[in-house]
User: What shape does this take?
Amino acid sequence: MLILATTFTTLLALRLWLERLLPRYPAAVQVLKVTWYIAITSYEYSLLTTVDWLPAFLGGASDAAFWPVSTRPELDTLYQLSAGYHSFSLVTALMYGAKFEMHLHHAVTVALIALSNWLGFRQVGAVVMFLHDAPDIFSSAVKGAIIIKHLPSTVMFDASLLISWAYFRLYLFALLLHDLFFVAEGSMTHRIVFGILLTSLYALQWLWYVMLWRMLYRFLTKGDIKDTSEVKGAVYPEGHEFRTQALLNGNKANEKDQ
Assistant: This one.
């Protein structure tokens, strides 16, 4: 519990400090999130590539060792880190007025972490964490790029996000759900509880993926980029819409003047 508490309090203190820097460094919160996701995804990858229970759909030998109940002490640090971060995310989402979908996402994630830890399904939890954390590197990066209104970075990170989200959160996660319903060893109660929670999480991934394409459609048709995943006050300052067409027109005008 010490790692969990330290993670939560450290991140909350950093977030409160960074909020004061937003007028001068508007992308500061996103830099914190990108740093976190790079670090935690690297740690998760280093763990998963060394275990003997990696499921077949991630390149492991088989699913035989993936589902049996086990405390898996090698995952204790990861679980505390993730529980600390997602508890922090839930609290800050409530503090800064994020959309209902974000509250639901954080609540379901915290519930899954707690239940998988309590019931001994840490292997499943670790895989779910990895599948979700990898695309969030680009999710936070594209938000930061929108805030600072840097078009090349926005396009690059948005394309990376669409590809990584589809692969990790939609394709690989669907394979995990297939294993849960048709391969998993465990009681029907366990399957139902995890099935409801994981399916809810999967449905949210599709909802947000549609939002990502809406953002791209807005850019292609109107020349503006606006992240619709959070309310304005939760992540962005006033006037955060990235009006790329006006930016491009301004650059063309400058070139003519020269």
About this structure: The CA atoms of residues 54 and 236 lie 39 Å apart. The radius of gyration is 20 Å.
